[in-house]
Amino acid sequence: MDRSRVPLFPSPYQRRPWMVDSGAAAASGSNGIKGIIAGGITGGIEICITYPTEYVKTQLQLDEKGANKRYNGIADCVKKTVNQRGFFGLYRGLSVLLYGSIPKSAARFGAFEFLRSKAVDSQGYLSNSGKLLCGLGAGICEAVVAVTPMETIKVKFINDQRSANPKFKGFAHGVSEIVKAEGIGGIYKGLSATILKQGSNQAIRFFVMESLKELYKGDDPKKPVPKLLVGTFGAIAGAASVFGNTPLDVVKTRMQGLEASKYKNTADCAMQIFRNEGAAAFYKGTVPRLGRVCLDVAITFMIYDSFMEVFNSIWKD
């Protein structure tokens, strides 16, 4: 075996031979192309399955106390949305996430693999702090490249539906209206909050996933991890990230809503939420977000592995 082709340190995506040299992160060679396509397909399937929970979560986070309050919980939000817009009203803004899935995945995996290659020691090992920092860097990269514009547009689309007469007639029309009214900066609202959210998201998820796999493998680093267990580990990592950074997600959502102009900046948004609604407001939408994120991370790992196995069997290098 050519040891030069074996990675010095097993990443959270170890046991995936297509990511040894040129996986989705590398975007070079046939393996890189396979990874990008598989990641995009996986993201599309995952979003279609879990998007209604993202929609409900965003609606609850945008809902304020007082006379403007519209919903009395998850079930009430779903019921009112379906009554007013039909079942597919729960999929408002889905196209934005579909369009952003490929660059988001490429940025995340590419940044993590690059940073990991720089952070390992002479023996090829990555410390616990290194795992957190590489995950943080991956999250920051995806926040700047794809997540902020994608999430901003999605939140504005969902927020637009809350009005009596929605003005966005589709993805292209909605984006053009946002840019026309606010400039290109209009799709980069809440950048700092999104960087904090995505950075902490990936730092937590990579760290938990890596640690759980190491715990399962024990003294045998080559021990394969069954797909169902990978999915379970992904769900646990997703849950950890939700409880760790939902307050940042709430602030990010408010900063990206159509009423974001009333906040001076991210810090001012956080302070106004705390003063007007109390500390509990920072955990609005936790339950629907928990459901979506756990499914998201679990499904992504499992489906991605399956697609790569299919690609490798029919698409030879």
From TrEMBL:
Entry's localization field: Mitochondrion membrane
Gene3D superfamilies according to UniProt: Mitochondrial carrier domain (1.50.40.10)
GO cellular component, one term: mitochondrial membrane
GO biological processes: mitochondrial citrate transmembrane transport
Keyword Transmembrane helix assigned: yes
Keywords annotated in UniProt: Membrane, Mitochondrion, Repeat, Transmembrane, Transmembrane helix, Transport
Solcar repeat copies, ranges: 30-118, 129-215, 225-310
InterPro entries referenced in this protein's UniProt entry, alphabetically: MCP_dom_sf, MCP_transmembrane, TXTP-like
Pfam families attached to this UniProt entry: Mito_carr
PROSITE patterns recorded: SOLCAR
Topology relative to the membrane: Multi-pass membrane protein
Domain of life of the native organism: Eukaryota
Entry GO MF terms: citrate secondary active transmembrane transporter activity
Keyword Membrane found: yes
Protein family per UniProt: Belongs to the mitochondrial carrier (TC 2.A.29) family.
Protein name: Citrate transport protein
Organism for this UniProt entry: Drosophila hydei (Fruit fly)
